Amino acid sequence: MQASQRWWRAQAAKNAMIPAMTNRPLGNTDLLARSLSAVWHPCSQMKHYESFPLLPIAGGKGAWLHDYDNKRYLDAVSSWWVNLFGHCNPDINAALRDQLETLEHVMLAGFTHEPVVQLSERLRELAPAGLGHCFYASDGASATEIALKMSAHYWRNSGRTDKTLFISLENSYHGETLGALSVTDVALFRSAYGELIRQQATVPSPDWRNAAPGESAEAYALRCAEALERYLQQHHAQLAAFIIEPLVQGAAGMAMYHPAYLQRARQLCSEYQVHLIADEIAVGMGRTGTMFACEQAPAASSAGQETVQTGITPDFLCLSKGITGGYLPLSVVMTRDEIYRAFYGDEMAGGFLHSHSYTGNPLACRAALATLDIFARDDVLAANRSKAAYLNGISAPLREHRAVRNWRNTGMIWAFEVDTRHRDFSRRCFALALDNELLLRPVGNTIYFMPPYIIGKSEMDLLVDRTRHIVDELST
User: Is the pTM of this model over 0.70?
Assistant: First the structure.
């Protein structure tokens, strides 16, 4: 039995002996017992925590988290892909302290405030050309809901009431609210909630792992785009939008694909009058190497022969996760003036009917502004390119490991599969990683790295070296 498994089972055995409420200072065991008693944790089978207890976190600094026994863990997954510039970042902390002394919240219906105006203006300057209007919510699934509703409502306001359907990629993930689940292609969710949602169609994913032997990632992406074209030809009259995770499909095991697919999808959606929704909730804010993944779509040059990196403009751009540096819940849907104008009129029924109590919260907007300040001040995208090159350079022993399959990298995301016989691979890997001071959260047998942008060379050395030892143990 692994050391971590022995420790966790011992802690679980103690949980029953600890009162549900206590005034004593919290420790690992205290927090475990009280959390299991009172908290229903997300994406969890709570019974599993009886033998595989929760990890109590006392605090964090930079790329590291630590528990109540002062054991540290390198946050190699950015705490569910949100933490860009480290835990307890001094710049974001200072911005929030300042905002707390001015305005903590005001409803955005009928009111406005400086942080939300500044953030909207700065996002307009950064985003693909033409995305000039920002609608705010609190999380990624809400952003998906907004984009879907806004698209269908646009077509209704435009007299195209038959355009109410959506399509997405196979193995896509866009959130877990009912509307978002309708365009999420995860079997577990569809099985549990399929009767509650309006099931939407999917088209083949350009995930290059599915390419034929000898077929390039670009050729496979364009072949998948042909399938998209065939579907649009047959169904465009009923389709409101095509929603896509640009370049990387996270829940599909960090499925990566060639940006030529984005270019072709934009062309086809324009041709067949179907909106293109870019779900950059996970991949935006610099994660793929550019501020937005859509920027990497190639387009024909003026000569008509070469391709240059010019990017595409989707009809809707969804952002969340890293937008506040991992501090506070915030999401935004950006859209074009043509869509905004379709809702502009005298009748309330023609307006966009969606709201959240905390829409455009000043504290969350201020955290996002501080995050954008760090991007600008520290030339983060250039620094990330150097860090990605360094990690790729030191990863050869891991990349060439006998059990590693499909090593891949896009920006500050790395992933690979492990050839293993362990049916509970993800939990075994998670436990063994904790023994090695790493926080890894595999998707099936896919290990991925999505570290904070402030990760240093010594931390990357540790991450790669210890992951190699973990793969050694789990592949025997």
Answer: yes
- Topology at the third CATH level for domain 91-378: Aspartate Aminotransferase; domain 2 (3.40.640)
409 forms beta bridges with 414
CB 193 within 8 Å of CB 181 = yes
Separation of CA 68 from chain center: 29
DSSP code per residue over 194-213: GGGS---EEE----GGGSPT
Structure token pair of residue 55 = 């990890």
H/E stretch holding 243: strand 239-244
Q: Where are the alpha helices (DSSP H) in 140-296?
A: 140-157, 178-181, 187-193, 217-235, 260-271
Stretch 395-409: mean pLDDT: 97
pLDDT digits (tens, 9 = 90+) for 175-194: 999 999 999 999 888 888 98
Query: Is there a contact between 258 and 412 (Cβ–Cβ < 8 Å)?
Result: no
CA distance 363 to 374: 17
Measured distance CA(281)–CA(226) in Å, rounded:
26
Structure tokens at 303: 């000569």
Instruction: For residue 292, give the amino acid letter.
Output: F
β-pairing verdict for 316-319 and 275-279: parallel
Report DSSP state, residue 437. Answer: T
Map tokens 């969606």 to a residue. 354
CB 99 within 8 A of CB 119: no
Domain definitions of the chain by residue range: 3-89+380-474, 91-378
- Rounded to an integer, the average pLDDT of 198-205 is 94
Distance CA 294, CA 297 (A): 6
Residue 363 has which token pair?
A: 């504290």
As a whole number of angstroms, the longest Cα–Cα distance in the chain is 75
User: What's at 282, amino acid-wise?
Assistant: A
Asked whether the beta carbons of 429 and 2 are under 8 A apart, the reply is: no
pLDDT tens column, 241-267: 999 999 999 999 999 999 999 999 999
Element (H, E) at 334: strand 331-336
Q: Which residues pair with residue 334 across a beta bridge?
A: 134, 317
Tokens 């050729």, residue located: 219
The torsion defined by the Cα of 179, 183, 185 and 187, in degrees rounded to 10, comes to 30
Write the DSSP symbol of residue 304: S
Using alpha carbons only, give the angle 133, 165, 340 rounded to the nearest 5 degrees.
15
Total residue count of the chain as it appears in this document: 476
CA–CA dist 306, 302 (Å, integer): 9
User: 64, 87 in Cβ contact below 8 A?
Assistant: yes
Fold of domain 3-89+380-474: Aspartate Aminotransferase, domain 1 (3.90.1150)
How many DSSP H helices and E strands does the chain contain?
A: 16, 18
Q: What is the CA radius of gyration of the chain?
A: 23
Which amino acid belongs to residue 346?
D
Tokens 């072709």 belong to 264
